[in-house]
Each structure stands twice: as C-alpha cells, then as structure tokens.
Design a protein that fits this description.
By secondary structure, this protein is an alpha/beta fold. It has three domains: 1-121, Conserved hypothetical protein from pyrococcus furiosus pfu- 392566-001, ParB domain, CATH 3.90.1530.10; 122-239, Arc Repressor Mutant, subunit A (Orthogonal Bundle), CATH 1.10.10.2830; 365-421, no CATH class. It has helices at residues 2-13, 15-18, 52-61, 82-90, 105-119, 124-136, 141-148, 152-160, 166-173, 179-184, 186-191, 193-206, 210-239, 249-270, 273-371, and strands spanning 29-34, 38-39, 67-72, 75-80, 95-100, 372-374, 381-387, 390-395. Strands 1-5-3-4-2 form a five-stranded mixed β-sheet, with helices on one face. Strands 6-7-8 form a three-stranded antiparallel β-sheet. Strand 7 (381-387) and strand 8 form a beta hairpin. The longest helix is centred in the C-terminal third of the chain and has 99 residues, at 273-371.
Length: 421
C-alpha cells in the first residue's frame, strides 16, 4: 500500500515535467481552497474512479501532496488529483491544499491525458469518448494524433465506433470486438456502414482474428471493386462517350478521371450551405497550415543556409590561416637558412681576419725586434735602416722601444757594422 501511495506521489510531482518550459507560470503558489470551489477537469478521460483504498491511505497518512489547479474565474479548475479530490470530499474535508498555476488549455489537455495513461491505461470506452469530446471541441483526428502523440489510425478507429449501432458499440466496450478489428475495417466503414455492420457481425459470431478480419475485408473490397467497374461501364456512355471502351490501362485512367470529376461535382451539389461553409473554413484552415509550414520550412532553410555559410567561412578562414602560417614558416625557414649561411660566411671571414691579425702581430713584433736592438758591439741602442739595396746600422739617438735582452742575443747580431757606425 505504501508503495502504491509513493507511486502516485511521484507521478503527481512529475506532472510539472510533462509541461514544456515557459508554459507554467513561475509565480505559482500554494494555498488552501474550499473543496466546493474546485471543479473537475473538462479534459479528464476517466469515467470511473475507485477511491476506497486511497481514502484509507489519506486517513492514515494525510494528503501527502497538493492538488494542482488553475484559476478559472471564481473557481479553480483541477489539473491533477481527481481521485484525491473525490476521496477527501467523501471524507468530509471542507478545504484542500492546492498548488495554483497558470497553464494553457492545450498543455493541460495533453498533460492530463498522458499522466493518467501512465498511472493506468484507459479503457476503450474512456479513450473513444475522450477523442470524441476533442472533435466536438473542434479538433480533427489528425490534430488529436499529433498533439497526444497517438497513431492516427488508432484515433480514427475509436471515433469510427460511434458511427456504428449501439449494440456494436457495447460489444466494443465489452472487448468482444477489439479496436484492432475496427482498424482493419476502417476502409469498409468509410465506404459503407451496412457492409461494416455485416463484417463486424461475422467477427462477433465467428470470433475472427484481426488477420482473418483483414482477409475478409480485402475480399469484400475486391467484390466491391468489380461491382464498381461494372457500374462504371454502364454509366460511361452517358457521362463520357469518348471513354466507352475499357481495354487498356490508359482507358481505365481516363474513365477514372472522368468519374472522379463527376463525383466531385455531385458531392459539392449535395452539400448544404452549412456544410459548404464548414468545408470552406476547413479548406482555409488547411491552406493556412500549409502556408505556416511553408514559412517555417523557409525559415529553417534560411537558418540552415546561414549555418552552412558560417561553417564554410570558418573552414575557409582556417584554411587561409594554415596557408599563411605555412607560408610564414617557409619564409622564416628560408630567412633563417640565409641568415645562418651569412653568419657562417661572416664567421669564416672573421676567423680569416683573426688569423691575418695574428700573423700581422707576429710579424710586427718580429720587425720591431729586428729594427730596434741593443748593439752587442757598441753597447748602445741601434737601428737597422734601408738605403737602396743595402741595409745599414747606426746608433739611435732615442731610447729603444724594445726592452733590453741581456741573456738572449739579437737575431741581427751577425750583421757587421758599416763604416758609418
């Protein structure tokens, strides 16, 4: 029992997650409201409610979570909590804790349907009468299937039940005929209620499966098609003399086109003014929906193109950036190579100059040593000088720039002094 209670508590809380963002008023608030001011939801598909077990739980634990409502004039319309409301009313509660929120009709309709189906699946009668109520409110079967996320043929089958006699409806509610059987004879119901009644009687009497029902419906369809072809051959000479012969596929296509044109005219002529007005409204509605879809398609296409152009621009930008980076790298590599080559050349020149400098310094020192010396003969500073092709030695009047070397003899010690010395 506690597990059941917890499950309903969780499902009630999860109602808010069934509602799209931005639909629920963020300023919702909790309060207590008189139970007489709370009206049941007009979108409630349930026809029966068993609250005996729930009453015991509420008596023992209290109401664990608030009822979800929305303000409608002087009253509050119930969105979630039908069983709890019925239970506390039977227990004699005069007030109930509620959470007041503002939610649009279409969201309430969709959310109430989904939430109740999660808790417990609907009976065929509940779902059929709910779909019927939505059509009475102006919704088409296609709109119902789209809004509630239900298969279109499933919705249409539930609505087709109401086209059949009461005894067949009761058989469907009692599950003697399944909704899948009604789906199988959908085309038959659209063509002739009389034929559909005959097939459904066969289903009840012979307890046919869905597969057998489809086979029977297809067999009946073939028979009807043959009768139609026969009737078309009889009426063609009157309405389309040029297509009297029905031999080739082209002949049949021409005849079908002619008959379709006549059928459309007869159908329009048979409509009342009210039906014609309703048809025009429906046509305008379809055109408006088509225009809306086309506008939405163009908007999405524009967004797609803009996004694609943006991606292409980013791709080209990346490619151009990579190209420039590669070019800069190549130029830098080339410049670095040329700089390294220039550096090597300069290094070689410097090394050569350094060698030449060293050689020059060495020769300079030798020449200085050779030109200025202390004569070992006269014990005076002397200098060697050139005169024509002869080298002469004379006593220097100035002090020698080469320091005296008493221990080592001069390299020019072997030179003999001339007469001038």
């Amino acid at each position: 029992m506690d597990n059941i209670r917890l499950r309903y508590h969780s499902l009630s809380i999860s109602f808010i997650f069934l509602v799209p963002s931005g639909i629920v008023d963020l300023e919702e608030h909790n309060m207590k409201v008189e139970t007489d001011l709370i009206k049941p939801s007009p979108y409630q598909p349930r026809l029966t409610f068993n609250v005996d077990e729930l009453k015991q739980e509420i008596e023992r634990d209290g109401l664990l979570n608030h009822l979800l409502v929305r303000k409608q004039g002087k009253f509050y319309e119930l969105i979630d909590g039908e069983r709890r409301l019925r239970a506390i009313r039977e227990l004699g509660w005069k007030t109930a804790p509620v959470r007041v929120s503002r939610i649009k009709d279409e969201v309430v309709r969709r959310s109430v349907y989904k939430l109740n189906k999660i808790r417990e699946n609907y009976t065929v009668e509940e779902e059929a009468k709910y779909f019927k109520k939505l059509t009475e409110d102006g919704m088409t079967p296609w709109e119902i299937s789209k809004e509630l996320k239900v298969d279109f043929h499933w919705v249409l089958a539930h609505l087709n039940v109401f086209k059949l006699p009461k005894y067949i409806q009761k058989a469907v509610w009692a599950k003697k005929v399944g909704i899948s059987h009604i789906v199988a004879v959908e085309n038959v119901i659209g063509r002739s209620i009389k034929e559909a009644k005959a097939i459904i009687k066969e289903i009840i009497n012979r307890k046919l499966t869905v597969k057998e029902t489809k086979k029977l419906a297809n067999k009946q369809m073939e028979k009807v098609e043959k009768m139609r072809v026969k009737a078309a051959k009889e009426v063609l000479p009157k309405v389309a003399p040029k297509t009297v012969k029905l031999e080739t596929a082209r002949d049949f296509e021409k005849a079908a086109k002619a008959l379709k044109k006549i059928a459309k005219k007869k159908r329009n002529d048979a409509l009342t003014l009210k039906e014609k007005a309703a048809k025009e409204v429906e046509k305008e509605k379809r055109l408006e929906e088509k225009r809306r879809k086309e506008k939405e398609r163009k908007r999405l296409e524009k967004l797609r193109i803009e996004e694609q152009a943006k991606q292409m621009a980013q791709t080209l930008k990346k490619k151009e950036r990579r190209r420039i980076e590669e070019k800069v790298k190549k130029e830098m590599k080339k410049s670095i190579g040329e700089a390294q080559k220039e550096i090597r050349s300069l290094t070689q020149k410097i090394q050569k100059l350094q060698k030449e400098k060293a050689s020059f310094v060495e020769r300079k020192a030798f020449l200085l040593d050779a030109l200025n010396f202390n004569c070992p003969h006269c014990r005076s500073p002397c200098v060697v000088y050139r005169e024509g092709s002869r080298y002469l030695v004379k006593r220097s009047a100035t002090v020698s720039v080469v320091p005296e070397k008493p221990a080592a003899p001069s390299k020019l010690a072997t030179l003999h002094p001339t007469k001038s010395s």
